[in-house]
Each structure stands twice: as structure tokens, then as C-alpha cells.
Design a protein that fits this description.
Elements (H helix, E strand, L loop, with lengths): L5 H13 L5 E4 L4 E5 L4 E6 L7 E5 L3 H16 L3 E3 L1 H8 L1
Antiparallel strand pairs: 1-2, 1-5, 2-3, 3-4
Helix pairs in contact: 1-2
Length: 93
Amino acid sequence: MTELTIETFSAQLSMMLRDLSRGMVAELTDFAVAYWNGHEVVFAFLRDDDSGKIEEEFDLTAYAWEEWRPQLTRWISAPRFGPRTEVLDWLNH
């Protein structure tokens, strides 16, 4: 099996998210999610207060990709998604 690249991961994630209902997010880790904003994938950190709310958006840059590749490789093999009313509200405005 070839090693997952950031380009391949992003393309697969984009395809999955585009097919989901608005407001659904990819639950990538216990601290990060991703969602489709209608044009592209947006990656976001979750708050560390256990509220499940989004703290801030981030770029999946080379340093983060290299650090998170094992987790994201596992995620792509068994993706998890969930609704976020917060994201749905943003997309509706």
C-alpha cells in the first residue's frame, strides 16, 4: 500500500464531505474537524473546554500533516462524521 499524501487525503475528504448534508463535519480527531463550505474543505480546531464548539480554522500545512498523518490515515480507513448545528448556521448565513 502506498503512503497517504496530503493531496490524496484532501481529495478523498473533499469527495466525502461534498456528498454529505450541509452542517456535517468529519470528526478527524478529538481536537479537530473538517467541513465543506460549498467551495473547499475547512479544517478547524475544537475548543479545549469539552463544549465541542469550534475554536478556530487552520491550514493542514506540511508540519501538521506530517505529525497527524498516522491518525488521519486511520481516519480515512474508518471515517466518522457528525452534524454540527454551529457549522450549519454559518453556512446558512
